[in-house]
Amino acid sequence: xxxxxxxxxxxxxxxxxxxxxxxxxxxxxxxxxxxxxxxxxxxxxxxxxxxxxxxxxxxxxxxxxxxxxxxxxxxxxxxxxxxxxxxxxxxxxxxxxxxxxxxxxxxxxxxxxxx
Amino acid sequence: xxxxxxxxxxxxxxxxxxxxxxxxxxxxxxxxxxxxxxxxxxxxxxxxxxxxxxxxxxxxxxxxxxxxxxxxxxxxxxxxxxxxxxxxxxxxxxxxxxxxxxxxxxxxxxx
Lengths: 115, 111
Prior knowledge:
The complex is a heterodimer of chains A (115) and B (111). With 115 residues, chain A is an all-beta fold.
């Protein structure tokens, strides 16, 4: 069973540009969450999508956005990149039911460097 | 979700049990305790979770105190590959796929 796949693994962008990161969840998983990890702030929740709808959102500016497609694949977009957006972006998928949560499985992440 | 407190770092000798504590004194009745770990440059990995009973799986054991205000993750025979940052997370059962990570404990397993 394939794990969570994130592409690309590494990315270098210039300030002011925008970037799109992709996440393919484990087959059958309908929930996808995104996290940002930096040395200073640690792991921070960005947003969660379930069945193409945003369920939860973290405390990030509107430059950070995401979406989920009908096949559960998800993308996140960061516009007008700033140096501080340099981070490891992690995606996690989960098989959720209406009764309880199950564990989240993380991808290897996309390392974004803004120069 | 309840806040957790963990020691920033711990050492453990290879082959010995690693006992990682977590304090979650404000936990409420419908919140579970989850443990994840992150090996350098990889995504976090789920280890175990529990509500009030002790739990064991192939990776670790989770001991939750009777008042549920603290818990201990036990790696029975630590190996060098267990060197990682371990995160204790308290999460409501219906919180969706949203995890609130604290600073975690950096466990160093030494030969």
